[in-house]
Specification:
- With about 100 residues, the chain is an alpha+beta fold.
- It has a domain of about 55 residues.
- The protein is built from 2 helices and 4 strands; from the N terminus they run ββββαα.
- A two-stranded antiparallel ribbon has the order 1-4. It has a two-stranded antiparallel sheet with strand order 2-3.
- The longest helix has 19 residues.
- It is globular and about 60 Å long.
């Protein structure tokens, strides 16, 4: 569970078909994260595992899928397969908004 007020800056993309290393088809999901945030997690194993857990839970909640908790970090690669465009919000929405009573 994420502490209240803490946000992980990421964008979860739509599912798409890719081919894995064995030549079999698989479903892939692109997750885009802020480059500053990536610098924080890439050399901190505990923080990186926290992010992977949050990302997997985000995918499961968004697409109603159940994912295996087995994962591996790609060496010398930031992605595998094709990258697809994503809409990324550049400013955050306020958590609390005043609503006009009229």
């Amino acid at each position: 569970m994420i502490p209240l007020g803490y946000r992980v800056p990421m964008s979860i993309g739509e599912p798409h078909v890719e081919v894995d290393n064995s030549g079999s088809g698989c479903t892939a999901y692109d997750i885009v994260i802020n480059s500053s945030f990536f610098e924080k997690i890439k050399n901190n194993e505990l923080f990186r595992e926290f992010f992977i857990t949050v990302a997997m839970e985000g995918l499961e909640n968004k697409y109603a899928v159940e994912l295996s908790r087995e994962w591996r970090m790609l060496r010398n690669r930031k992605f595998m397969g094709s990258l697809f465009d994503q809409n990324i919000r550049t400013s955050s929405k306020p958590m609390i908004q005043e609503i006009d009573s009229k």
